Amino acid sequence: MSLDPATIRRIAKLSRIRVEDAEVAKLQTELNAILGWIEQLNEVDVSDIEPLSGGATMALPMREDVVSDGGIAEKVLANAPDRAGEFFAVPKVVE
Amino acid sequence: MLTDFSIAAAAKGLRNRAFSARELTQAHLHAIDALNPRINAYITVTPELALAQADTADKALAAGEAGPLAGIPLAIKDLFCTEGVRTTAASKILSPFIPPYESTVTAQLKRDGAVFLGKSNLDEFAMGSSNMTSAFGPVENPWKRRGDDDTILVPGGSSGGSAAAVAARMALGATATDTGGSIRQPASFCGIAGIKPTYGRCSRYGVVAFASSLDQAGPVARNVEDCAILLNSMAGYDPKDSTSANIAVPDFAAAVGRGVKGLKIGIPREYRPEGLSAEIEALWQQGMAWLRDEGAEIVDVSLPHTKYGLATYYIVAPAEASSNLARYDGVRFGARVEGHDLGDLYERTRAAGFGAEVKRRIMIGTYVLSAGYYDAYYLRAQKLRTLILRDFTDAFRTVDALLTPTTPTAAFAAGENMDDPVTMYLNDIFTVTANIAGIPGLSVPAGLDGKGLPLGLQILGRPFDEETVFAVGGSIERAAGFAALPRIRAGVAL
For the residues B180-207, what does the mean pLDDT come to? Predict the structure, then answer.
């Protein structure tokens, strides 16, 4: 299947990446080339095959539900592009 | 020169006080001063920190309390968080980021006394096979085609800075990471050794995430023993990474000299794609002959789903990347571009902060996970993953390890393979299935092509059997006697 310009814009929106009108055609060509190449997987019969999510073969471990860290607000905020007191600051969201 | 030592020999020299850790570190800092403006292997150099660590190592050596890596100068791929030292992932979006914590792998290297020279260059977020996608500029491979000092070759990727730094003697070894071949391919292109251990062997805590089910840290160094020494320090269970394996770390270095007598080595017949160069085929045959001479039995095996490895990877890896990279939104850390509302801020920040390859992968990943397409792409890829793992499991019933070429070509020139993304992806055709299956893979420099460029052979092994992989790699290394040097290196600025 082939992606049209509207789909490219929709994917960009879902990805939260601003795409200028002039970039759409190039992205359409590139993403369609990649997806076209991926289509080769349709040759393989995967009925009755269980999906595998990862390389780790062991079960994920459980741990105690306890606080093991914290009280480091300054460290956490040190890399913030903008802050207000002990909070991250962003443009106004709710009027 | 001090920069020519192996890690094993340097550790011995430091213990015998033949030279100090400060002298060894200074020699490497001089090499970096001379070569880095051209090679661009380091994004950040930390001379003061390195010399302070060297002085600490000298004190520990004098007191007889030195760790196994005391005074060994290393490059750290700029994907490992280092407390108080900028960590960029070679991306504009992380260019202002100074981690408040240390990755487990680098913490363990520090525990053992290593000296960190700086943070090495890579493809942006480790997405690439040429180091051309770094926001901090490409890395030059210190090797040159014979008689052609002008053409700039790529070091491979994504760990291109780590591999170039080690090859050019700007570090004795380096940390690296491998999601589809990012340790083994640059090692092969730069004439050095590198191992991607079993998934779960090294903690991923504090390593900037790309594709979490495929990412694995490992070392690059100038020989197999040095890789084993570094991996011994880097590996081990870490409760901070829920996929870290609670399995004892054996003495990898002891396995390097074990030999291959009685081992069965599989040769996968699917690793001969159309157009594989005659030189690489010949080197592969030579590798088989070396192992046979050392007492191994060479066995033909089949890995029937090999050809689907890359396409599977280019669904799974972008899907995981689109999720992992959602955190870069200009709010809690990293670069921000202001917008008229929060959504606009996100979109502008990510448009300006990510490079073209990263954006492509996020968008592909978003698409294959989106409603209506999940089953057709992502679920199908996960089923292919089962089939690829099954191929290896079946093969390892009859053989102890597999021998393959590491890459389909030697290092290519900067600008080549850039026309369309898929051509670049094909570089990882021999390496990517090890990530999909989670098995260990080692690249060993084994010879030169007709133009004088290094070529590597790859050894793949059973999960958590790096020892056999090291044993086979050690045998190949001894038989190959690879002694060629890159054109540009410490003391030879060109």
Answer: 98
